[in-house]
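Standup notes, structure subgroup. Blocker cleared on the NA7 input:
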Amino acid sequence: MSRQRIAIIGAGPSGIAALRAFESAQRAGAKIPEIVCYEKQDDWGGQWNFDWRSGTDRYGEPVHSSMYRNLWSNGPKEALEFAEYTFDQHFGRPISSYPPREVLWDYIDGRVRKSKVKNKVQFSTAVRWVDYDRDQDTFTVTVENLRSGKTTSSEFDRVIVATGHFTFPNVPEFDGIETFPGSVRHAHDFRGAEALADKRVLLIGASYSAEDIGVQAHKMGAASVTMSYRTAPMGYDWPEGMEELPLLDRFEGHTVHFSNGETREFDAVILCTGYLHKYPFLPAELALDSPNNIYPSGLYRGVVWQKNPRMYYLGAQDQWFTFNMFDAQAWYVRDLILGRAKLPSSEQRAAHMREWRNRFQELDGDADDVRFQGDYIRDLIEATDYPMFDIDEVVRIFLDWKDDKKKNILTYRDKNHRSVMTGTMATTHHTPWLAELDDSLERYLSTPAGAGDGSGV
Ligand code: FAD
Ligand code: NA7
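Run returned:
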C-alpha cells in the first residue's frame, strides 16, 4: 500500500500541533504519512504572527491576523501551556502569567524550532480550493504560490483544516453609520491603541475584543470609552472614563443614540462584533457553518467532519483552552489517521455528537462552559498518548482569572498562577501591566534597573 498523503491547511498553533503530533509518533518509531502543510503567510504562528498591515497583505491576500501591537495574553498562560513543552523548558526560568504576544509567539515557535517539521510547511502558499473525488476517495488540493504566482494541484488521502476562525470580520449594519465622520473599523483591522489617545471611542460588542481594546484605549489615554452591548453587559467594575451602554439605535453624524434614550458623541468607532466561520477554499459540503461556540455541530469529537470523516478541523470551537486543546485534538486526529484510534460508525458518531450537543445546550454561564471544554479535552487525551494534565486545576485557574477580572479589570494581568505542568509559580512582571508601554520580548525578559527580582507575590 502506498504511503498516505495528508494535507494540513494553516500553520498556526493548530496546524503546528498537527505537525508536532506526527513528529512525536515518528520519534517513537511509528511510520507516518507524507505530510504537506500549506501556510499563506511567510512564517508560522497564525494569529500570533503579527502583521502591521490591515486589509490586504503584501501579496494582496486578506491579512490573516487580528492581533494588535499592544496585545498581551488575555488569559493566564498556565491555562494554555503545552503538556509536553513547558514554559520552564522554553524560558529556563519562571515568567509572569500574562505575557505579551511576542513572548507567546516565541514559546509556540520554540517547541518546534529545533525539529525538522518546518520543512514540511510550504510558506507563502494559499490554498485556493479543495475537491473531494468520491470514486477515488481522495482530495485534490489546489494552491497558489504567492511569490511565484504559480498554481498547482496535488492529491491527498486526508485533509486537516487548521485555518482558524477569527479572521473574517462580522460586519453588521447600523442605522446612519454612513454619516459618521470619524474613523470606523472592525477589531480585525485594529493594530494599536496609541492613536485613540484623547479620542471619544465607541466599541460595539461585549466580548473579548470590546473588553481588551477598551482597556487598551483607556490605558493609552482615550478621552472616553463606551462599549455597547446587544445581549448583556460585561459588567466589570470599569474605571472612570469607561462605561457600558445598551445597543445603539442610530448614528447621526458624530452623535450616537442608544436604545435607553441616551446619546453620546464619538470620534472613533470600532466594531467588536466577532468573526465568521469562513472557508473560501472549501465547497459547501465540506465547509463548517457555525456561530462561534464551544461545540459546533457537524464535527464528531469536535474534529471529524461527520459528512466526510477523512476531513478534520482543528481549533474550530470558541476557545477557553487554546494551545493544549489544539494539541489534544491533533493527537487524536493523528491517531485516527495512523489507525491507532478506531473511528466509530456514522450512527455511533451521530449519537455521540447528539449527547455532547445536548449537554452543550444545557450549559449555563462561563463556569459551565469552562468545565465543559475541560471535559471535552479530557475525553480526547484519554484516547491518545498526549500527556494528561490536571484539567480540573486548570478549570480552577480559569475561575480565579474570571474572579480577578471581576475585582479589577485593569490589574488582573498582574496576578500570578501556578503551572499544573511543573508546579512553578509565575513571577510578577517587573512593571505593572497598566504602566508597561513596551510590549517587546526584549523588554519583557529584561530586568530594568530598580525593578525587583521578579519573584512571585
Ligand atoms: P490561527 O492562529 O488563526 O492560524 C491559522 C493559520 O492558517 C494562519 O497562519 C493562516 O495564515 C493560515 N491560513 C488561513 N487560510 C489559509 C489558506 N487558504 N491557505 C493557507 N493558509 C491559510 N488565545 C489565547 O490563548 N490567548 C490570547 O490571549 C488570545 N488572544 C487573541 C486575540 C485575538 C485578537 C484573536 C483573534 C485571537 C486570540 N486568541 C488567543 C485565540 C487564537 O485564535 C488562538 O490562540 C490561536 O491562534 C488559534 O490557532 P489556529 O491555528 O487554530 O488559528
Ligand atoms: P466574540 O467573542 O465572538 O464576540 C462577538 C461580540 O459581538 C458579542 O458580544 C456579540 O454580542 C457582539 N455582536 C455580534 N453581532 C452584533 C451586532 N449586530 N450588534 C451588536 N453586537 C454584536 O468575538 P471577539 O472578537 O470579542 O473575540 C474573538 C476572539 O478574539 C477571542 O478568542 C479573543 O481571545 C480575541 P452577543 O453577546 O452575541 O449579543
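Discussed briefly. The radius of gyration is 22 Å.
Next: hand off to the docking folks.
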